[in-house]
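Reminder to self: keep the SMILES exactly as supplied, no canonicalising. Ligand is 5-O-phosphono-D-xylulose.
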Amino acid sequence: MSIVLQDLPIDQQQAVAHTRERVARLHAELPRNGLVVWTAGNVSERVPGLDLFVIKPSGVSYDELAADVMVVCTLEGTKIDDGTPQHLSPSSDTAAHAYVYRHMAHVGGVVHTHSTYATAWAARREPIPCVLTMMADEFGGDVPIGPFALIGDDSIGRGIVDTLRESNSPAVLMANHGPFTIGKDARAAVKAAVMVEEVARTIHISRQLGEPHPIAAADVASLHDRYQNAYGQPAGPTPTGETR
Ligand SMILES: O=C(CO)[C@@H](O)[C@H](O)COP(=O)(O)O
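Structure tokens returned for the bound complex:
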């Protein structure tokens, strides 16, 4: 039987509402950072404390994305009775996002784009080598390639999970498709999507000039540890109400 949002306890309804607001707001970061054309990207976030997540409706323009059209799904990827029109379908990548949430309990946010340089690396099925301190900081090593998988079932999600379980990276380039990123929340996953496109572009340019030099594994580990545990401001609310 379908879950009815309005029948949930008020505190759970409020948790869903806050997640919808965040996910709607974070979608604007995709065009703002040049990561998408048209509607070719999506963001989702797990609802804290509930076996639900929020994702954008499929094919809806980013300037039409508001909290009240964000679709609420179970971790199986099934839309609940969330107050949106019954015909409003969740993202075509919902199954992939749902698979990640079911199999990676620490993941609170998932993003998918077709950003140009990262997708170009995906087309070549070559991992992005860790030759920049920024890569060591954010990815803790190379950005891996995931298997080629067709949309429509758990294949993409399984490829994401199987690849990321073997890596420090919060980003995976699914072969011939494009980047999927994860994070503790949607904001962290959006950041990883921005950063993977940046390093894909920089290393592509570097390769036009010659062969980039790798960073020693011990230095990669040291840089990653510092950045993940000491960089920036202490955990807590950001000026815009996000959570660091
Ligand atoms: O790769 C694909 C479709 O092949 C998707 O990632 C779309 O590009 C975005 O789909 P929606 O989230 O709008 O359904």
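Points to follow up:
DSSP finds eight helices and seven strands in the chain.
The chain has a mean pLDDT of 96.
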